[in-house]
Design goal:
This protein is of the alpha+beta class and 377 residues long. It contains 5 helices and 18 strands. Strands 3, 5, 9, 10, 11, 13 and 14 form a 7-stranded antiparallel beta sheet that branches. A 3-stranded antiparallel beta sheet has the order 12-6-18, with no helix packed on it. It has a two-stranded antiparallel ribbon with strand order 1-2. Helix 2 crosses helix 3. 47% of the residues are buried.
Length: 377
């Protein structure tokens, strides 16, 4: 945040507390987190209901071309599937270990703020500081998820998860980001149970970024200049609350990729083991973020890494409009609603729904093709 841990959010001087590692915290999202704050896409909130209508898919596919029947089928699909927010499984769900050393007072004892989705109020020029966890040099945050993070080639750009902080573009200039980098490690439960326990069975791998020392022992690093390329660190790319938090930004291109909520994207292929050799991880269980710099900038004070959320990248599958990784009747229902003008899909969703390759707003032809694909036809 660029403020000394001796300064509270209001600017008053306060005594610096002794911050020590705390026991694992598992609880609800922190203040300011909206459990339904997600724009433009639907998770499959009513999926179990589909098991009670096994005849719907064959009926819809067989009779979709009949103009008189089509509206009724679309309406039925919409009734069967109610749109909902992205599920908890798209974001970190557990705080496993933390230390707020060097963080901003008022923000360095709230690790639960990093659970759930990122802020929808943040913009690239004005971050939302209402719900963050802050830690400086010597501090860290370890997070867990309700399922492993996979190195999936279907993830956009090959990026597997995204860390959101409170970086911003100074003066709105995309080539001049304000960064407070944290280096990132991923952990694997060596017992194969995907359980953190006391942490002693977790094997950690560093996602080596750019710039980087030869090993983790080489941290802290100097604060990178605003015009330098920085990839593979948290809290370096702003958040755009209007974007999709499961769609990774391209970290090698200035600015935020259209449709993305920004943040810093990470590829498990960057993982190296203790010797520095590529780890070739198929999946991981945990993410640990540690402040990478030990810098004081007067009059602002000590730089600290902030974390708002960690999301998992959604795989790209043509026809998978709701982004759950599969083409189902839910995708057909969303496309039907968009074709009828009832909802507006994001640009990315429109591309996924465009099976007729016509471009633009989905059509009934797209709905028919998605229905066929969901039925395996």
């Amino acid at each position: 945040m660029g403020r000394s841990q001796e300064t509270d959010p209001g600017g008053a001087a306060v005594a610096t507390p002794h911050v020590v590692a705390a026991p694992p915290l598992v609880g609800p999202r922190g203040p300011g987190k909206d459990t339904h704050a997600w724009h433009g896409r639907c998770a499959l909130g009513a999926y179990p209901r589909l098991f009670f209508v096994p005849s719907f898919l064959p009926l819809a596919v067989a009779r979709w071309k009949e103009p008189a029947v089509r509206p009724a089928l679309a309406a039925l699909a919409c009734l069967l599937i109610a749109g909902s927010a992205r599920g908890a499984g798209d974001f970190a769900t557990k705080v496993l270990a933390w230390d707020g050393a060097g963080g901003v007072i008022g923000y360095n004892a709230t690790p639960g703020n990093a659970l759930g989705p990122p802020s929808t109020a943040a913009t690239p020029g004005v971050p939302d500081n209402s719900s963050l966890f802050s830690f400086g040099w010597g501090g860290y945050l370890t997070l867990g998820f309700d399922h492993p993070i996979s190195d999936d080639p279907r993830h956009p750009g090959g990026y597997d998860f995204i860390v959101f902080g409170n970086s911003l573009y100074l003066g709105g200039d995309e080539t001049s980001p304000h960064r407070e980098p944290g280096y990132v490690e991923v952990g694997v439960d060596s017992t194969g149970q995907h359980s953190y326990g006391d942490g002693s069975k977790v094997v950690w791998y560093w996602l080596k970024g750019t710039p980087a020392p030869n090993s983790i022992a080489g941290f802290p690093i100097p604060l990178p200049s605003a015009d330098s390329t920085v990839v593979g660190y948290a809290d370096c790319t702003p958040t755009d609350g209007a974007g999709d938090p499961t769609y990774p930004d391209d970290p090698f291109t200035p600015g935020i990729t259209p449709g993305s909520a920004g943040g810093d994207a990470f590829d498990l292929a960057w993982a190296v083991d203790a010797s520095g050799a590529p780890a070739h991880l198929a999946s991981v269980d945990f993410v640990r973020i540690t402040c990478a710099v030990n810098v004081v900038i007067p009059p602002y004070g000590r730089l600290s890494t902030e974390v708002d959320a960690v999301s998992l990248a959604a795989p790209v599958v043509s026809g998978d409009v709701d982004g759950d990784g599969h083409v189902t009747i839910a995708d057909a229902a969303l496309t039907a609603r968009a074709a009828a003008g009832l909802i507006t899909l994001s640009e990315r969703q429109q591309r996924l729904a465009d099976l007729t390759q016509h471009g633009g707003i989905p059509t009934t032809g797209d709905v028919a093709l998605i229905l066929k694909r969901s039925a395996g036809l």
